[in-house]
Hints:
Layout: E1 2-15, E2 18-31, E3 35-39, H1 46-53, E4 62-70, E5 73-74, H2 80-86, E6 91-94, H3 108-119, H4 125-138, H5 155-166, E7 173-177, H6 185-202, E8 205-209, H7 213-219, E9 222-227, E10 230-236, H8 237-240, H9 247-254, E11 303-306, E12 310-313
Parallel strand pairs: 3-8, 3-9, 6-7, 7-8
Antiparallel strand pairs: 1-2, 1-4, 4-5, 9-10, 10-12, 11-12
Amino acid sequence: MSLLNINNLNIIYNTKGKRIKAVRDLSLNIESQDSIGIVGESGSGKSTLAMAILRLLPREISEITGGIIFDGTDLLRIDEEELRQIKWKEIAYVFQKSMNSLSPVHKIGLQMSDIYKVHESNAADKEIKERIFELFNLVNLSKGVYNLYPHELSGGMMQRVSIALSLLHYPRLLILDEATTALDVVTQGQILEEIIKLEEKLKLTRIMITHDVSVVSLTCKKVAVMYAGYLLESGYVTDVLSSPKHPYTRELLNSYPSLTGDRNSLKGIPGSLPDLSAVHQGCIFADRCKESMDICFISEPKSIEFSNDWKVACHLVGGVYGD
């Protein structure tokens, strides 16, 4: 059953006299209890897309059109009070560097209790404490953390606290934005394992924003590949990361260590992201693509759907150029 439908989403930033097209005509369907990783270079629009879901982008400089439908409700059309009933209760967000967001002069338990009361103002202290201890157990933290200050915790423990905070009201959708990037490999692996267990226990749906393709390969069912605001390829991890159809996906994978064995050398992608305030004709990736053809610089490719919900926007896989 579909939980989140993003339809023809466009996001423009108006800043310093320019109109930055951060997300362009993006459509994505996320089923209940899906886990989808959104990957791409820095500046590809991943975090912008994620923050738009909860309307966290600054209204004074951003224009958003299209639809973001969560369980039948268009989040872009409801008022602030309606959104407040969904934000953090139905949809929760773990931000980049969220471990730095807590007050350094208050104990963890007090801060979590105060945050819980924002939505449940009449909750008893005993009830809140029991909920916090339950979440500590889920994310592998001891009850003693309740009476500690943030500076007394390691990076891994702080990230677990951040995840526990996001789960205070047992949301249906959890968005993780580079949530484990600052951690060492061992701690990152432990937290990712715990997240997968949480999904099974709490029936969570997860969106994971990350640069790390290996994280998506190991922890997500599906993947969406973004570049310069466009969704270029999406589908099941077993399809897209095993046999990518879009040249950008292939180049992205070549810039990471092999997911299945040794690789002699890693290759970066020549060039850089295009100017998102400029008018572009044809495929947005054409200037950097080794396989580009004349049509790639003239006509924007449409998304082609293959079997098993696999979608690709590339002239190489459509029409007379089909593979």
